[in-house]
Design a protein that fits this description.
two-stranded antiparallel ribbon, 7 helices, 2 strands, WH-like_DNA-bd_sf, HTH_MarR-typ
Length: about 180
């Protein structure tokens, strides 16, 4: 009987200990699933984040929300317009400063957020399936601490600018000649 080959998961790989590679693999796995689950929302993942913030009653006005989520203020305006048209959020005057607008989830928005949150939890469970429940909890807490520290050292105030900066760091691919 021929020897059985170990599965690729059992074969150690030099990349297995590379933080960037491992984070990237887990991130891509989660993003693929999460994007599919929030694609029904205006703005997709960004729309979901705005809806989650509004449904949970995060304090602050529209500008503060844009800064917290790292969304350009102009982009946030269009995103909120689309979420309002869908009946998911409303802009209301801030009682503390009527010049500011608070973003508040509608009843439909809260129900949509609850349903989407439940589906995202199942997606998270799928991605974290190799970990037992206690390890999942520890992993989430450690990841939260890392994210808070990283954000305090280098906060993202404008994700659009960040994407442009990252894209400018990527070397251009050589163009193929028409013959090649």
């Amino acid at each position: 009987m021929p020897p059985t080959r170990p599965s690729s998961a059992e074969i150690p790989d030099a990349l297995d200990s590379d933080l960037g590679w491992t984070l990237g693999v887990v991130f891509r796995s989660y993003v693929r699933t999460a994007n599919a689950l929030v694609s029904h929302l205006p703005g997709g993942p960004r729309g979901y984040q705005v809806l989650a913030a509004a449904a949970q009653g995060l304090p602050g006005g529209q500008g503060a929300l844009a800064q917290r989520l790292g969304v350009d203020k102009t982009v946030m305006t269009y995103l909120l317009d689309d979420l309002e048209k869908a009946g998911l959020v409303e802009r209301r005057p801030d009682p503390a400063d009527r010049r500011n607008k608070r973003v508040v989830a509608t009843e439909r928005g809260r129900a949509t957020w609850t349903d989407t949150q439940t589906r995202l939890e199942h997606a998270e469970d799928h991605v974290l399936a190799p970990l037992d429940p206690a390890d999942r909890s520890v992993f989430r807490e450690l990841l939260r601490k890392l994210a808070a520290q990283a954000n305090s050292l280098d906060p993202v105030h404008d994700t659009c600018r960040l994407v442009e900066e990252l894209a400018s760091d990527v070397p251009a691919k050589p163009r193929r000649s028409p013959r090649g």
